[in-house]
Amino acid sequence: VKPVLKQSNKILSLKKTDDSIKYTPLESQVVKLKEEYPGVLLAVEVGYKYRFFGEDAVIASRTLRIAHWVDHNFTVASIPVHRLQVHLHRLVDAGYKVGVVCQTETAALKSAGPNKSAPFQRELKQLYTKSTFFDGFGVDQDENGSGPSHSNYLMTIIEENRGKNKTSELVTMAIAVNPATGDVIYDVFEDGFMRSELETRMLHIEPCELLLPFKLSKPTEKIIGMVTSPKTTSPKERARIERIPENETISTDYNTALSFLTEFYAHGNQDNSESGKSAYRVFFVCSKALAATAQYLRQFRLDHSIKLTKYFINFSARGHMLLNGNTMTNLEIYRNSIDNSYKGSLLSILDKTVSPFGKRLLKKWVGRPLINVDQLKIRTDALEELVEADDYLKKDILNFLKHLPDIERDLCRIQYGRSSPKELLGTLEALVKISGALDPRKFRFNSRILTKIIDTLPTARHAQDFKDCLNQNAIGEKNCKHNLFISENQWPDIPMHKQVCGFSTDTHIRAYVIQLKVKLKLVRSQLEEYLEQIKVDVNIPTLRFVDVSGIEYLLEVKNSMASKVPIEWVKMSATKAVSRFHTRFVSEKLKELELSRALLDIAAENAYQDFLRTVSDRYEVFRDVVQSLAELDCLLSLADTALRPDYVRPVFSDHVQIKVKNGRHPMVEQFTTTDYIPNDINFDTDEYRTMILTGPNMGGKSSYIRQVALISIMGQIGSYVPAESAELGILDAVYTRMGAMDNALSGESTFMVELHETSDIMKQATPRSLVILDELGRGTSTHDGMAIAYAVLHRFITKIQSITLFVTHYPSLGGLAKEYPESTTTGHMSFIEEDVNDIPSVIFLYKMVPGISLKSYGLNVARIAGLPKKILAKAKIKSEEME
Fold first, then answer.
1. 550: burial class by Cβ within 10 Å (0-12, 13-18, 19+)?
2. 647-882 is a CATH 3.20.20.370 domain
3. Which CATH code fits 154-317?
4. What is the pLDDT of residue 501?
5. What is the mean pLDDT of residues 611-628?
6. Measured in whole angstroms, how far is the alpha carbon of residue 224 from the centre of its chain?
């Protein structure tokens, strides 16, 4: 009889069904660990391999494509120790929560302790999921490194119903944490039945893992399912979902959450800055989500990532333009609409960054355009100075940035105590290099941003003090931590540096390390003395110590002299030429040696962790330096964009307007094989603020309206724009309603989705917004659709008064331009019609001109699509009858 292994939604549990099963000591440990950590796929260290047991082994075998077999009571599979990180990465990508169980004692410690006859002690050392795994791998980049992939954000969503209607108006709390970089985004917002606000935040953040209550409202569950559903068959695209247990009150009870947060932030958080004080408000408005997140991250030992409130960002901060979920998708801000990949998006067009931290910051800039004229002027002043700067200066900076490691991620690894000595040294060397890289005498700029960046970099010089504490020659050795720190005997000035660094472990941990080193040296000395003595005793002058296959201090004797070997010597190995032995004295000393080494490993690790904590005390200083470099990388990227042909710096004003001469679609022109036809844009709240746009199908209407929105967004990012000239007012938001799609998950038709989205836009749009409505009303009968389109457009013209682009195939709506000539105009995409006696053939000119187009020329599209001529002829007759 074998244990029953149960799998449900990738939550693995192991239960014994028969007390008569006789487990091995190791299996008993595994059963206990599985009971203690339900839902975790365990990799258990056994000697030089990591083993999976039971259903875990079957899953590992299927996911990793390795063999599995039956051993005693369980199916098992194994992987070598040195391949652990690779296999963990694949398991985590597949959506599993993986635990690494390590042996906590060596053979030497075990033999010297009271645990001699028991199995090796083991305990869970690390837990990993999609958002918490970043050991040894870059983050936020796709497989070929060309652009950002789905981020490492963990997003917690908590709902509160503060009204009578349990399914519509809700208050939602959201916390998003990127443990790899320490970024934290929070928000509290009201949402409607469509959950458009939640969708917007999820599309911006792109979480790879969600922490959710045991139960959410149906509309919320549906929108989460829709947003997180993979666009491809790759498991990497699927966000992992972790449910908070139903009996856990931290996400449901305000007092429990606040009590937890009070204790959590009680020590070590003295951020009195304005940003810090502002972030503290999240404790009260977003307490349940924050507490649930902190508790969840604590099991991964990553809770320190949300202790520094200085880096909390409010998603709804008023300093940025709002791009809702529909706008992000329709305008292809982060991903294209064809295969949902990075290529062809607005981000890909602007992204020429060379550092990982620069890529991450640019993505934030693109998704959160500025709405403050002064901030935009400061950013574009810096951009213009870089554009005009000498090429050799820019190349020097780019070459410097290109060769930096991902310091932002590495600093977080130091904070979590996960950085290896080699990584630590690399990070410190990079920071030292940064502190003196850009000499102010050579790289002197006039703009405020660039001056601040150059002045911030020297603050990284403290890294030199930490670097000077390390023995660089020890890096790369097998047990480098034993000799990692320079002793006071070798470096008389170390007390001064310890004072600077705050590193004072010599008084306790390091003293113990030195004591163990002395003992190791003594044992080795005794063995060498023993060798000289035994040579005389057995009269074998050529006797010597050798190490073979990991076995140390073997007494090697030529076989021709083997008769002189005492009978009590134990033969360990032999060849045709020599034999190798251990004596009782050597065996005893080897045990002492192994014990001292094991104790030294522990002491050296403690000293190293203490040093990492000391370095992490400077985390904020170092991170601010990295943020400055990221900003410099982003500005250089935008400067590269600005140097493209016919790109211009926009002129900004507080007055709401979009006046562009010969503007172009920034993405389409990059991929088209022919010359792009530019178009003017002319909107002004004191003149024409509404355009009714008509024209034939495939005539370029969609490209034009996207061009208007993208140029406005690019301008407020701080980028130059594709045009001859551009005068832009500051928009507070861009809203779009494009495309025809139903929402099968919500049981809603195409027309219902259209109206829901239009309703949301009408509630949120202001006179400073840009609104694009594409073919509203097409999802129902012509009369009803036209009536609704008329009423909505009339509302925007007379009440909302935002800059509005209304694309339609209802020519009669042009009457509103005559009714409100002071604010509304008409336009259509020009064309030439041929073969009027047959099926009309239309030549598209892709130029926007004034006036209404009375025909849509759908038959021309049908002809291009290849419909049979008989069908086209019959359709033409019917069309003429209906006209």
1. exposed
2. no
3. 3.30.420.110
4. 43
5. 94
6. 18
Q: Which two tokens stand for residue 327?
A: 């706008």
- Residue 675 CA to residue 658 CA, distance in Å, equals 24
Q: Tokens 């000239």, residue?
A: 725
Say what the pLDDT of residue 297 is: 95
Q: How far apart are alpha carbons 568 and 458 in whole angstroms?
A: 67
Segments of 775-873 assigned E as strands: 803-807, 824-834, 841-850
Please tell me the predicted confidence (pLDDT) of residue 491.
Answer: 38
pLDDT on residue 504: 47
Give the tokens for residue 328: 């992000």
Lowest mean pLDDT among 259-268, 392-401, 447-456: 259-268
What are the residue ranges spanned by the domains of the chain? 4-128, 154-317, 373-502+617-636, 513-603, 647-882
Between CA 402 and CA 405 the distance in angstroms is 8
Residues in the chain: 883
Separation of alpha carbons 378 and 370, rounded Å: 11
- Provide the 8-state DSSP code for 159: E
Neighbour-count burial of 394, counting CB atoms closer than 10 A to its CB (0-12 exposed, 13-18 middle, 19+ buried): middle
* Distance separating alpha carbons of residues 761 and 324, to the nearest angstrom: 10
Fold of the 373-502+617-636 domain: MutS, DNA mismatch repair protein; Chain A, domain 3 (1.10.1420)
- Is 555:571 a contact under the CB 8 Å cutoff? no
Task: Report yes or no: 701 and 692 within 8 Å, Cβ to Cβ.
Answer: no
How confident is the model over 279-305, as a mean pLDDT? Answer: 86
Q: Which strands make up the sheet holding 122-128, listed edge to edge?
A: 69-71, 74-80, 49-53, 41-46, 98-103, 122-128
Distance between CA atoms of residues 147 and 159, nearest Å = 34
